[in-house]
Amino acid sequence: MTINVKIAERPYPLNVDNENDEEQVRKAAQYINERLIRYRMQFGEKDMQDLLAIASIQFVVSIFKLESEIRQEEANDKLNRINSRLEEFLSSI
Hints:
This protein is α+β, with helices and mostly antiparallel strands. It has one domain. The protein has helices at 19-43, 48-92, and strands at residues 2-7, 10-15. A two-stranded antiparallel sheet has the order 1-2. The chain is elongated, with a radius of gyration of 22 Å. The model has no long low-confidence stretch (mean pLDDT 94).
């Protein structure tokens, strides 16, 4: 199914698989547009391309931070499982 969303006052047709995806895409477009408005107020009347670049960098940095947190949580879970096994082994000796 094709939907149309506006980002920075430009329409974009996007394909989505279902209504849940449609909702997510529309929320994402709204979030991007809100960020652009905030950046325009913060940085003044910059070119929209500059504002989109700033938003893109900040979004990717956020993704990198989340990925790092997830990797750390996964590592902590593995260490906790190993620790539990070691404690079980040591208590059985």
